[in-house]
Design a protein that fits this description.
Distance between the termini: 25 Å
Order of helices and strands: HHHHHHHHHHHHHHH
Radius of gyration: 19 Å
Number of helices: 15
Amino acid sequence: MTIAGGGDPAALAIGLRRDATGLGLRALAAKTLHVAVVAPERLMEVYDNAAGGWLGKPVLSVRPPRHLGQRLDLSPEFWNAFWALVELPAEARDKVAFAGATARLAGLLPGALNVRVAEATLDFAGVREAAANGLPGRFELGDLKSCPAGSLGAEFYRRAVRQPSELEILDREALGLDDLPPPLDYVNTRILQCHTLWRLAAGYGDTELDDVALAAFQMGQFGHQFSALLVALVLAMAALQRPPGAGLLLDIVFSGWVHGRDSPPLLGVRWETIWRLRMDEARGQLGLRPRDQRRAPHPGAESLAGWMRQAS
């Protein structure tokens, strides 16, 4: 199902809205894995249509689907690592280790896929223009330290002091990002340094469910492949384990995607120019609407959050 990628994503989502069956969840997980590791050209098409079906809104895509590139076979090593990760016992999981295992899984994908991911990323608004400015410099902790209390920069500084990885998640040189085809070199460098900023500005919290929502937001912003793989893994685990509140998980994914698609492009924002603004002022200058936190609590939210803490 992952290789073939067949079926209508909107009809699949509408069916899951009526009844989140095991078969439907497996089909959706396979579809999301398809666009993450086999056909990145279809990521926008599939998520726009699935989100439209789930949320009952018009499809967002205004461009015809891209022509698929040459079929790429996934190695037995990839599938072995995939199933080992999906089937890992809950007590053996941990948030940091899960992210590292997802990165290693991405490293088992065919190298030729990067070129296709790079081309598909250019379909997203603002990516080409942001990447044209070249690789960004590093943020300076000293600049953040001088920001007034209550400002975007002050909150970013507070997090960076508490957890140094918040300033830049991983070492960009060690990851060899310069070797990626453009604009992936820019996109992946930018996400290392802006992941926390997007979380703050777009209104996402720090729970495991927020992590999934933010991953979907990042996909909607610039088609981030690692986020696509992460979401596909979580949906595969949900399809096999059938946790309570699976419908809420789908709502989180599709709402995050639409939020990313509807928001102004954040990839090329010069954050240094708005460090000193209050959060509401910074959002106003960016034209960014934060995530809607006013929805009524979902009856399965607490149980799903408990499952996510185990699953991550």
